[in-house]
Design a protein that fits this description.
Elements: H1 2-7, E1 13-16, H2 19-27, E2 32-35, H3 45-52, H4 57-70, E3 74-80, H5 81-84, E4 91-94, H6 106-118, H7 125-134, E5 139-142, E6 148-149, E7 161-167, E8 172-177, H8 193-217, E9 220-221, H9 222-230, H10 241-257, H11 262-273, H12 280-294, E10 303-309, E11 312-317, E12 325-328, E13 333-336, E14 349-350, H13 354-357, H14 372-375, H15 379-389, E15 393-402, E16 408-414, H16 416-422, E17 428-433, E18 441-447, H17 451-464
Helix pairs in contact: 3-17, 4-12, 6-7, 6-8, 8-10, 9-10, 10-11, 16-17
């Protein structure tokens, strides 16, 4: 059925990894379809057989993905991280799996330096770096361990304000910081005075204004906005223009009626309206809520987390909740700003791949052809990327319907076994941070997880599976 869908209505010869055959057919003007398929990786056969024979797996995957797709996501409050997450001075959250200062990448170090300066725990970048290296009174923890997600470096400190989203269906809550915009910003590892000044304004003006407006407005259905924005040319990861403007539409009357000084009202509206990525920090915790709902189903091979800290790429799976399976992060391929090039790029970083985990981002690029202008490639490639992701997922989410595919639901629920049986890795669109601390953003592009994350997860799933029946 999946190959038939790829073929659409035109009969074509399917070629799988056989370039000589494909070239020969093309020379004869025979319509062909090249499929990115490879045999299971050598050494995975025994683990695949064990996991595929697990009688729990079909129902477990159906349960996990049903929970994922049924999860709600409403914006219910905006609060400082000290209140929302109980952060205290010197305790920082970060993107991706656990990391220590000695292994941290340049942008992660830069973001932590910025957080130290923002919290007034150091007076200079040099002093901040010394204190972070010494580790005295400093604690680093993954956002994911605290019901939170953070884009790029994902650093969260006590004075930052957090979006608070609630899933009424499953009773979960998730958090994300406020989006700073693009360019030289903390999340990309920049820590210049302009970065700290912006963070100070966000803490003093933007956060309190949003809190008052959201509390006056009442819960805002973020999942419903995501469904609309996917039909308006956004994919929820690197294109959030429609989502940002719909959020501003909902909140602007309340912002106007909470008694803000006119100058503050104008600056808040201008900041949100001029920052196309503002809604990313809502689509991410909405996706986190979906992944939380799907976690902890024994026997399930559905991926619930994909995250990167700039050094390691890590995944988690439903059937083994809380366990990280990691491998070295890869460098994205795409478009670079100004005079920057691949040599300036840091390996993949950020919790924002949580969007792909639930069918958004790279999995919904067919809905957002304009995204290719930001990450590179062509509109047909964006369409084909989404079509390919149906091969490694177990469901289609009707809440995120893709117009160009006749409103077919977004491919949802990455299956570890399908990834390793087909050799098709998830596709992620992402920003690119400079590898040198303090640089900021240098580009945007596409990246895939290292396959070793999936082989490690498969081995652990095999170890936890019931024994194979005696032959």
């Amino acid at each position: 059925m999946s190959i038939r869908r790829l073929l659409d209505t035109e009969p074509r010869v399917v070629t799988a990894g056989v370039d000589v055959l494909a070239d020969a057919l093309a020379a004869q003007a025979v319509p062909t379809l090249a499929v990115d398929w490879r045999p299971p990786l050598p050494g995975t056969e025994a683990d695949l057989a064990r996991v595929l024979a697990d009688p729990r797996r079909p129902d477990a995957n159906a349960t996990a993905v049903e929970r994922m797709m049924s999860a709600g996501a409403k914006l219910v409050d905006v609060r400082p991280a000290s209140e929302a997450l109980g952060l205290t001075p010197g305790r920082f959250l970060h993107a991706g799996p656990p990391i220590t200062w000695d292994r941290a990448s340049g942008p992660m170090r830069g973001a932590l330096i910025a957080a130290m300066l923002f919290e007034r725990l150091a007076d200079t970048p040099e002093e901040a770096e010394v204190k972070l290296a010494a580790g005295d009174g400093i604690t680093l923890e993954p956002c994911h361990h605290n019901r939170a997600v953070g884009p790029m470096a994902g650093v969260v400190s006590p004075s930052m304000w957090m979006m608070e989203l609630r899933d009424d269906t499953h009773g979960n809550t998730a958090f994300c910081s406020l989006n700073e915009g693009l360019g030289k910003v903390l999340r990309y590892g920049a820590y210049s005075p302009e970065v700290i000044e912006r963070l100070d304004w966000m803490s003093a003006v933007l956060g309190p204004a949003l809190q008052a407006a959201v509390r006056r407005h009442g819960p805002i259905d973020i999942k419903a906005i995501i469904g609309q924005m996917v039909q308006m040319g956004d994919e929820g990861h690197n294109r959030n223009r429609a989502g940002t403007l719909m959020l501003l539409r909902d909140l602007l009357p309340d912002l106007a009626e909470i008694g803000l000084p006119s100058q503050d009202l104008a600056s808040v509206a201008r900041f949100i309206g001029g920052n196309d990525h503002f809604f990313l920090n809502l689509s991410m915790p909405a996706a986190k809520l979906a992944s939380m709902a799907a976690s902890g189903v024994p026997g399930s091979t559905v991926v619930t987390v994909m995250a990167r800290n700039g050094t390691d790429f890590g995944i988690q799976v439903s059937g083994l909740p809380g366990q990280w399976f990691t491998a070295p992060a890869q460098i994205p391929e795409g478009l670079f700003l100004g005079n920057y090039g691949p040599e300036d790029a840091n390996p993949d970083i950020g919790d924002s791949a949580i969007t792909e985990t639930v069918g958004l981002g790279g999995f919904s690029m067919a809905a957002a052809p304009a995204i290719v202008r930001f990450v590179g490639g062509t509109a047909p490639q964006a369409l084909e990327a989404t079509r390919l992701m149906y091969e490694i997922t177990v469901a289609e989410n009707p809440a995120y319907a893709i117009p160009v595919l006749e409103f077919r639901g977004a491919p949802t629920g990455i299956d570890v076994t399908r990834v390793l049986r087909t050799g098709i890795l998830p596709i992620i669109n992402t920003g690119v941070a400079g590898k040198v601390a303090g640089t900021g953003q240098v580009g945007a592009g596409l990246v895939r997880p290292p396959v070793e994350c999936f082989t490690a997860a498969l081995s652990a799933l095999a170890a936890a599976a019931p024994p194979l029946p005696a032959s």
